[in-house]
Amino acid sequence: MDAIFNAQVGMAFGIIALLLVIYVVVIGWMRRLGDPSKTAPAQVGPPVQGADGAPAVRAEAQSAASAAEAGRKKRQILIQGKDAEIAANVLRRMLSDHDKT
Q1: Residue 46 belongs to a domain
Q2: In whole angstroms, what is the distance from residue 39 CA to residue 48 CA?
């Protein structure tokens, strides 16, 4: 009876250890996928230089980021303009309703 119990406890610890190893491997793999520096293909040849001497890829990324930021700012301004227009219309209606009474 003791041997069966020991085998079951050993099996339980073995399964827990296996699940822990799988968990650590999967989490490491997911983190690796999330880090572009680890998943980017190796560059062959010398780096391409941008206008300021920095790698061209960085310049393209910065220009894309600044374009995205400009787009966000433009959308925010349009939203604020729409909000101001709606508020002005509501105020105008309120004042016109007030004048009628």
Answers
A1: no
A2: 20
